[in-house]
Amino acid sequence: MKIKIFLVCMLLITSILQFSSMVFAGDETDPEIVDEEYDLFGPWADPVSQPQYAYLDIDSAWFTEDENEPDYLFLYEKVKDLEYKKLRSIYSMHWDYDGTKYAAGTHTHTFGTYKVFISGKSKGEYFNINGEYDLENNYVIFRVPKFLVGNPGQGDVLTNTEAWSALRYRAELLTLIYGDGELIKDWAGYGRDYTVQYDSIGIPYMHRIFGSAAIKPNREYIYNFEATDPQDEEVYYYIDWGDGNIVDWTGPFTSDNPEIFTHTWDSVGSYTIKAKSKDANGYESDWAIMNINVKKSRTREIFIHDFLMKHPLIRILLQEILKI
Predict the structure, then answer these.
(1) Distance CA 200, CA 134 (A)
(2) Alpha-carbon gap, residue 110 to 314, rounded angstroms
(3) Assigned superfamily of 205-322
(4) Which SS3 state, helix, strand or coil, does residue 21 take?
(5) Closest by CA position to 229, among listed 147, 142, 159
(6) Do domains 23-195 and 205-322 have the same CATH topology?
(7) What is the pLDDT of residues 4-24, one digit of tens each?
(8) Structural contact between residues 38 and 65, judged by C-beta atoms closer than 8 angstroms
């Protein structure tokens, strides 16, 4: 009897030790990454004036998941006083998984009127993702499809977790001339590993919309839509052109293959194109969003537009080259 009790106790102790060695969902009270206050550096860094750069000063960062959305990693980066500035502010988080380095990043220009969120392999293989600047809570939030970052599953570990922020030259040309352009930077150092909690269920990923953002009324324009299904299932598209016209779940189409749709706007103004995809199981992607402006036509622009519409191969080639 004593031997049985001893064995049971040993099993319990072993289970507890294994459990305690795993890192589960982080949050603000127990983040994977913690940073010092006012540890900014770079050519613009100044201990006296650094409080004015509190919007770059990282407090902490963490990885977490939502059991209701198992196809996504949620990354949070908290700074002292998040706000939009005129210059180019960048926030990013990095980690290693299965021998590959991955990252999620965002930058904002001109007081937040221009911003983008991206994620993927650290060597430039980035894709657009959804994210949020939560100015009230000082959070930069990344919603990262696991499909884009190696599709880690339950029990897999993300290592070398880190976060950094920076203020850069507004123009990329200055970065090319003067170097990496980081006027001020805060590197939060390496944090604890993160253990993935949930397996993905195979939600499609909707790539960004390709097409012209400068539109003339009463002219037909071509747009490319593309979705990738992690399980290579066929996909369907739902497109909202922003003017009251909708393409309601058309398909099926081949996964990972661009599809062409055309549309004409009748009135001048600003519009938002929204598109999402779903697979045969009914799993829906996030929205892909593109803002356009419809303005009155000029004679030369009408001629060029008519020429391109009559020569679709030239038009498609230009779209691929210029990403217009």
Answers:
(1) 26
(2) 35
(3) Immunoglobulins (2.60.40.10)
(4) coil
(5) 147
(6) yes
(7) 444 334 444 333 333 333 334
(8) no
